[in-house]
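Human: Respectfully, please carefully check these tokens:
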Amino acid sequence: MGTKDRCYAYSLFFWETESVDGKEISVFVSVTIYRILTYQTTNCSKRNLFHLKFCYVIRRRYKTEVKRMPLQNTMKTGRLEAVLFDLDGVLINSFESWYQAFNAMLTAYRKEELSRDEFTAKCWGPDLAHTLVALNLTEEAGEYCINEQLNLIGLIELFPGTKAVLSSVRADYKLKVGLVTNTPKGNVNRILDYFQLVELFDVIVTGDDVRNSKPDAEMILKACETLSVKPAHAILVGDTEMDLLAGKSAGCSVICVKAKSAGDACIEYLQELFAVLDKETILEGVQQSKIEGKRDK
């Protein structure tokens, strides 16, 4: 009798309203459902038996975790081969450009503008398509926002050390480097060209390259497949709940930047990534190569 186990992850997220201290607030709820399918074939009876197990993760912004499926810490149990980076909030500070573009869209389509706190809570993290649905806006409105953000590219700032970190991960640590972002391809290409970052990535996956954006795992899995790397041998560096859920659903370790989410490690600044990598025992061989490389220079 042969047995094969397969794991599928489904991600859902939605808004609900709660009363906190007498005030009505919107709470963002993320749900990732893991379906573990065990397929067994019994030769003598030619019967196929399917066993389904469901595990789930429910995380609520402003709330604590309700239940979490324990996942393997790949930084300690596997060979690290790649580091995948989110774009907005990790490599670049694009908040102001998106905030102004979003409010310009709301004004153009006769909706009430959002404060920065409201925009952060409701719109920063989920992909634009889902946010439009929540606000009862059309794809046309989304295109307006996307184009407006391109006009505000001058407001975007590259975080200190971004180029040095990306270059060192590849050159010194001998790891593959990927970009995984919900941002539309046109905006990503314009931003990368603007800051001259294109050549620093081995793979770039945008929201237009997949059917399901983060928090779904599809984007992470696509990047790993292109790099010929198993998700268990990759780390995702992100700053939102969407990144955490996508990385964990794919089977990666997750390093959170300036985030309250409980990843495998949390850092305040991008440069601190090296400290996390250096203390992992799986990088001993990489560190040796790094040292030898510096000696040769």
